[in-house]
Write a structure and sequence with these properties.
The chain is mainly beta. It has 7 helices and 65 strands.
């Protein structure tokens, strides 16, 4: 299967009028910072027009300048982040004032005030030491945002060296599902930029670049600052409904400076105990080597920076183990008998000549290389040019998919199932990105121009060997083992690229600013006030047969779909209004917030489904419980002998609602920032989001239910689940508008000063929708847990619902021993490990989607309807009567915090919240500093320990998961039409507890040793 995606979307960013006293003035706030303020007469307090304000970046000598307007206000846009800056204000007839130590934060306007005294003779300038970082108190800050500074990037604990480890400082952050999520939104709906250029996993098979292979896409040594925007009420910032994650890379200075480092970890750097479970790390090796260097090419004018990093990790492919017989089915020990797997492997080899590979004890190797280079050129005080190029090469093996889009899913990574290694595959993640930026200012206006190009290769690789059908073997209604080729992988090639151009022109008027701009990306683009206009080229093949079929929409009404149609062109308006109020004008109290519409691009994998699933390029045969297709080791055995170009006899459809629109939500934000004693700043923030165009799916080939169950669980039932028998399903991508999320957060922070940084926070978030969309259209529908109507699911918890989270970070640096600074940094959080649903094993309601029917929670044993359950765990057999199962099920409900409170109801999707887990990460480093040729150089030894809590005590830092999320196996109906079922078992025993301690690399401590040399020439 080959996907080459090229989708266009073009448009214009709108005129934006600032409502603040001091206007913002930097492109999209993603590459630079700004300084703004007012110059006034110290005697009368009146504004001074025509005063010249000059800011000089100390490390590089880069100079920026502006002239005050008639109201005495000035804006210096497009400034390098960091500092320190020396900022001076002067005017003929007035004494010059200089403010030293000014720092500039990414995406933030730092506010300054100058009060110039009149002078009749030339006097020395008045010099003031200041630290106007402006990251929290800024007249331009409205919505929720967090800045990660250079010091935090350098000191806080990390082993992965992924920026995600630092984004945890954001109160609205949540590590739900893969990657990272903000404000309870799908992590694929974030927008990440590096130096202003989009840097996303745009296809949507993962959250962010690097997620697919589990590596960092850009070296932390190359980053200067990071900013997370949750609710920016500036219409120039968009393309997300989760968060905008803006990263800016380092630039060279007038000093040659850099670092060289080596990090390593091994088997001895991994814990062996996770609560009562023993963890065997297997072969665990990691090394990481890198170098970074920046400096001048022409002093004060032209600078370079470059970084190179190469790492390789060897880790266990799976930590789950086969049962040698009689072992308890807990921890990493599965129910799957080693004797069964050995016999099966021998049989398949002898009968078909297929090698299954091992089922345990094998390793995964993940190499990756990343490189970045950057040039910065100061043409003059008013024009700055930069060019940046970076690449990522990476590859990693992956366990076969758990998706139920083909087969029954849940094939691995549980105590119930263990697959063979040759069913696994490998993923590539190779990225190339180049971007140029030109910042200019002239008179009372400024301009920011960004041009970029990105290309990605995320193709899959199979293990060597001939193709072989995927075979799933079940026991007790759920997967026992799997062998054969992973069904979604053969010839799965994924290449995509995008071009980007954005330009923002700002005119500064008295008390206001007006910005006009354009943003164009060939993959998508932006237009309006803010108006987004997505446009797709129709690259699908229409199925003439399917186009004549009459399906059912969500309301049950007849409907026809164009099988090859992609989303149409829709104007998506995003009006926003933000405010910032400083009651006393002293930067001690700040009330801010806003309301507005945010528009994001969908994960383009949602659109690619329609291209490949029209029934013209591919056919689809699904025949359950049949002897019509005897097993054949040749995957092509039942493929049609001739292909005429006509639609296949049987097919699967992925369709688009003609009214489908890109994801949009309405978001409101209200916050207060307060200066506190001891250099602390407190923030309380409330965020609420409501879907305007959320993602939803229906199966238009599903008829109305033919009957319903009898008894207390009277849900609808299908005895026939297709309108057209030759169409396996017709999944339609559509919208819903009832999803919503909220987040309340409070934090206290002390920014880095005197070697000390501290932040302590709490947040509670909710997130509700009707479906958590996956990467496959049919799987998004079949995998969605429902109780009554699968085409009209009720609103329930999203898998990204964050719940409660307590977090904190502290870092302290001091020269304790007289040889160089010692740094000790700690990060901790206490949060839920996720959520889940209690569902039946099997297709209980007959709608064609297995293992997604939410259970009914009986009020008492009288509402239960068990049948005899014969449990076989060789060589033992136990038979449980209906009465024994009813008693055990009643006891299970009573001990379960969720089930016991919802008797007489259907279980909710993701209604079960997993227990909280507390973990702390620690970093300790020691520098040995020396001055060489008058410049500071140092050798640093550093230890990073993740899950330091588990190192202190083996029971700590261990998460808990479900014993099983399928407590009941559907059997059939009794004479009255009521559903019958059996209770799940663990080994020979019926289930008795909801949760068990997990055992994985995340549940034990892990340590990394690093050696770094920091040099200045």
């Amino acid at each position: 299967m080959r996907w080459i995606v090229s989708v266009g979307r073009a448009g214009f960013a709108a005129a934006a009028v600032s409502m603040f006293a001091i206007p913002a003035a930097f492109a999209q706030g993603v590459t630079t910072g700004a300084i703004a303020g007012i110059v006034s007469d110290s005697m009368g307090g009146g504004p001074l027009e025509g005063a010249r304000v000059v800011a000089v970046h100390g490390p590089s000598g880069t100079t920026y300048a502006a002239v005050t307007r008639v109201d005495g206000r000035f804006t210096i846009p497009g400034m390098r982040v960091g500092g320190p800056y020396k900022v001076s204000a002067s005017r003929v007839g007035y004494r010059q004032e200089v403010q030293n130590g000014v720092t500039v934060s990414l995406g933030v306007t730092s506010d300054l005030q100058f009060r110039l005294p009149q002078a009749t003779v030339q006097l020395e300038a008045v010099t003031v030491e200041t630290s106007a970082a402006g990251s929290i108190f800024s007249s331009q800050r409205t919505g929720a945002a967090t800045t990660v500074s250079t010091d935090q990037l350098a000191h806080l604990p990390t082993i992965s060296r992924r920026v995600e480890d630092l984004l945890r400082l954001t109160p609205q952050y949540s590590p739900m599902s893969f990657g990272f999520s903000f404000a309870g939104q799908d992590n694929r709906l974030n927008n990440t930029t590096i130096d202003g250029s989009y840097f996303n996993n745009s296809f949507g098979l993962a959250g962010q670049p690097g997620d697919r292979t589990g590596v960092t896409p850009i070296s932390l040594d190359a980053l200067e600052q990071v900013q997370v925007n949750i609710a920016p009420f500036d219409v120039r910032q968009g393309n997300f409904v989760g968060a905008g994650v803006n990263m800016v890379t380092k630039s060279g200075t007038n000093t040659f400076a850099g670092s060289a480092f080596y990090n390593t970890r091994s088997n001895s750097f991994v814990g062996k105990s996770a609560g009562p479970n023993t963890f065997n790390p297997g072969t665990f090796q990691y090394h990481d080597v890198g170098i970074a260097l920046g400096g001048p090419i022409l002093k004060n004018k032209l600078f370079f920076f470059a970084s190179y990093e190469d790492d390789a990790q060897t880790a266990p492919g799976t930590t789950f183990l086969a049962n040698t017989g009689g072992q308890p089915n807990i921890g990493s020990v599965t129910r799957v008998l080693a004797s069964d797997l050995d016999a099966l492997s021998t049989y398949v080899r002898t009968k078909f000549g297929y090698e299954t590979g091992p089922y345990q004890g094998y390793d995964f190797k993940t190499p990756s290389t990343r490189f970045l280079s950057r040039l910065d050129y100061n043409l003059n005080d008013h024009n700055k040019l930069s060019v940046r190029y970076n690449l990522l090469n990476s590859e990693t093996p992956v366990l076969l998919s758990n998706s139920s889009s083909l087969g029954l899913g849940n094939r691995r990574s549980s105590n119930l199932s263990l697959n063979f290694a040759n069913s696994n595959y490998a993923i590539l993640e190779n990225i190339r990105s180049i971007v140029g930026e030109w910042n200019s200012s002239f008179g009372k206006s400024s301009n920011n121009l960004i041009v970029g190009y990105n290309t990605s290769d995320e193709s899959r690789k199979n293990v060597d060997g001939p193709w072989f059908p995927l075979v799933e073997i079940l026991q007790g209604g759920s997967n026992y083992t799997t062998f054969g080729f992973e069904p979604f992988t053969p010839d799965n090639k994924l290449f995509y690229h995008s071009y980007q151009l954005q330009d923002n022109f700002t005119v500064y008027l008295p008390k206001h600013s007006v910005t006009l701009g354009v943003s164009v990306e060939k993959y998508h683009s932006t237009k309006g006030v803010r108006v987004d206009v997505p446009k797709f080229t129709n690259t699908a093949y229409d199925n003439a047969v399917a186009d004549t079929m009459t399906f059912r929409d969500a309301s049950g009404a007849p409907i026809h779909y164009n099988s090859g149609a992609l989303p149409g062109t829709n104007l998506l308006f995003s009006p926003r209004l933000g405010f910032n109020f400083d009651p006393g004008g002293r930067h001690t109290t700040q009330i801010r917030g806003g309301i507005g519409i945010f528009t994001g691009r969908p994960a383009y994998v949602w659109i690619s489904n329609q291209v490949g699933n029209t029934g013209v390029l591919t056919g689809f045969i699904q025949a359950d419980t049949t002897f019509a297709y005897p097993f054949n080791p040749n995957p092509n055995a039942y493929k049609p002998a001739t292909v005429t170009g006509a639609p296949a006899t049987s097919f699967q459809l992925a369709l688009t609602d003609p009214n489908f629109k890109f994801p949009q939500l309405w978001r409101g934000n209200l916050a207060i920032d307060q200066q506190l004693p001891w250099g602390l700043t407190g923030t309380a923030e409330y965020l609420y989001s409501k879907d305007v165009n959320g993602i939803a799916y229906i199966n238009a080939n599903l008829p109305a239910p033919q009957t319903s169950f009898a008894g207390p669980d009277g849900r609808p039932r299908w005895t026939s689940n297709r309108i057209y028998g030759n169409v396996s399903d017709a999944t339609v991508l559509t919208n819903q508008g009832i999803g919503h999320s909220s987040n309340i957060a409070a934090s206290v922070e002390r920014s880095f000063r005197g070697g000390l940084f501290a932040k302590l926070g709490y947040s509670y978030g909710t997130s509700k929708n009707t479906v958590d969309a996956g990467s496959i259209a049919s799987g998004s529908w079949t995998g969605n847990a429902i109780a009554v109507d699968p085409n009209n699911p009720i609103i329930a918890n999203s898998q990204f619902a964050p719940g409660h989270r307590f977090f904190g970070a502290v870092s302290y640096t001091r020269d304790f021993v007289g040889v160089g600074p010692t740094s000790i940094s700690l990060y901790f959080d206490d949060r839920s490990a996720g959520n889940g649903s209690y569902v039946f094993s099997g297709d209980m309601n007959g709608d064609g989607a297995a293992n997604q029917d939410l259970i009914y929670i009986p009020r008492n044993q009288g509402e239960m309807n068990f049948v005899s359950n014969r449990v076989i765990v060789n060589p033992d057999t136990v038979t449980y009567t209906p009465a024994q199962q009813a008693a055990a099920w009643d006891a299970f409900i009573n001990q379960d915090p969720y089930l016991s409170k919802h008797r007489g109801e259907y279980a909710q999707r993701n209604g079960v919240i997993l227990p909280m887990v507390f973990r702390a990460d620690l970093s300790i480093s020691q520098d040995v500093s020396r001055r060489l040729a008058g410049n500071a150089n140092s050798l640093q030894i550093r230890f990073d320990i993740l899950n330091f809590t588990n190192l202190l005590k083996s029971d700590w830092g261990v998460s808990q998961g479900f014993v099983t999320s399928r407590p009941l196996s559907f059997v059939g109906v009794d004479a009255s039409g009521a559903p019958t079922y059996r209770l799940a078992n663990v080994g020979l025993n019926l289930i008795s507890s909801s949760f068990q301690k997990n055992v994985s690399t995340f549940d034990v401590w892990r340590m990394q040793l690093g050696v770094r040399y920091l040099f200045n020439w």
